[in-house]
Amino acid sequence: MKDIKHYINGQYVGSASGKLFDNVNPAKAALRGPWGKMTLEERTRILHKVDDGVNARSDEFLEAECLDTGKPKSMASHIDIPRGAANFKVFADMIKNVPTESFEMPTPDGTGPLNYAIRRPKGVIGVISPWNLPLLLMTWKVGPALACGNTVVVKPSEETPTTTALLGEVMKEAGVPDGVYNVVQGFGGDSAGAFLTEHPQVDGFTFIGEVIMKAAAKGIRDISLELGGKNAGLVFANFDMDKAIEGTMRSAFANCGQVCLDTERVYVERSIFDEFVGRLKKAAEGLMIGPPDDAEANLGPLVSLKHKKKSFPITRKPWMTALPLLPVVVFRKCRKILLAGPGWSPRSGPLCRKIPQ
User: Fold this and answer.
1) Domain hosting residue 243, numbered range
2) Same domain, 252 and 303
3) Do 243 and 164 share a structural domain?
C-alpha cells in the first residue's frame, strides 16, 4: 500500500509521530483481491454455500424478520426466508448460462474481423432495500450483483435492519472474502442512503424512485429501478368465482397490503358485482390479526407507527367512508391493522420491538 505523506515547504514528509492511517474503500479493494481473481465456477460455488447457510439458520432469520416486521411466521417461513436464500443459488446458476455475442464483419480486404463481447463486473453496487420483504428483496438485488462478480454496499431500511446484518455472518462462513458484502445502517436523506448514492466510487445502484435516478445521473452510472405500480384487479362474469375471491384476497391483503404488486382496486363486471362484493366482504371479515407466533393469524401490524400515521387518514376521507358495503367493511378491518392490531404496541423507532400487552 502506498504511503501518502504531507507536502510541506517543497518536500514530502511524514508526521512527527510516525503514525499512519488507512484510507481504503473495502468494496473497491475486494475487486482487486481474491474475489476479483475467482473463476465463475468458484464464485458460484460460494453463493451456493450462502444459500445453504441461510437455510441452515432459517430459524434465526425467521425470528429476526418477524421481530422487525411483525408479520406472521406462517408467511415468512414459506416466502421471505426460503426465497430470500434461494436468490443466491438461482442467480448463481443463471449466470453460468448467460451467453455473450459475437459478430462477423465483412470488409473490402476480405480479412473478415470478428467482434465479440466480454463480460466484466461493473464494480461497486449500492443496494438500498425496502422494509416490506427485507431479506427477500435485498437478496434479489445482492444475489445477481455478486453472481456477476461485483461487490455490494447494502443500506437496509432503518425499520428492518436485522436480517441484512445477520447475513454478514453467513457470508463470512461461506467464504465470501472481506469487503465483498458490506452493510451500512442508517436513514435515507442526509444519512447513509444519501451518502451511498452520492459516493463517486459507487458504480451502480438498485432501488426505487427519481431520487436514485438523479444521483445516478452524476457520472452517468447504471441503475436498476424497482417501480411498483397502482395495480388493478379485473373480475369478469366468466371467471371461476371461488378462484377470483381467493386470488383477490391474497393479492389485496398479503403482507397487510404492503407489497408493490398488491391489488389496490378491483373492477368487477356488473352482472356478478353483488355476489362478488358479498363474498369478498365475508372473506375479509374472516381475516385473523395476531402476533407472529399465532399459527392462525394471517395478518400482522403495519411495519411502523410512521406508516400507520401515513396510512390511517386515508380511511377517514369522505369519499372512503361514503362508499357502500365492501370498502367500508374492508377498511374497518384494515383499521385494526393500521392501529397495530389488538394486543400490540406499535413501533416508534427502528430498533423498538413489538411487546404483547
Assistant:
1) 231-338
2) yes
3) no
Asked if 177 and 44 sit in the same domain, the reply is: yes
Residue 103 lies in a domain: no
pTM of the model: 0.80
**DSSP one-letter string for 49-102:** HHHHHHHHTHHHHHHHHHHHH---HHHHTTTHHHHHHHHHHHHHHHHTT----E
Residues taking part in catalysis: 226, 260
DSSP 3-state assignment of 80? helix
Q: What is the pLDDT along the chain (357 residues), one digit of tens a residue?
A: 566 666 554 676 777 777 765 656 888 889 999 999 999 999 999 999 999 999 999 999 999 999 999 999 999 999 999 999 999 999 999 999 888 899 999 888 888 889 998 889 999 999 999 889 999 999 999 999 999 999 999 999 999 999 999 999 999 999 999 999 999 888 887 788 888 888 888 999 887 667 777 878 788 888 888 777 678 889 999 999 999 999 999 998 888 888 888 888 889 999 999 999 999 999 988 888 888 998 888 888 888 888 888 877 776 665 554 444 343 333 333 333 333 333 333 333 333 333 233
Domain of 324, CATH number, reads 3.40.309.10
User: How many domains does the chain fold into?
Assistant: 2
Q: What is the CATH number of the domain that holds 151?
A: 3.40.605.10
Phi-psi region of 325 (alpha: psi -120 to 50; beta: other; left: phi over 0): left
- Same-domain check for residues 193 and 64: yes
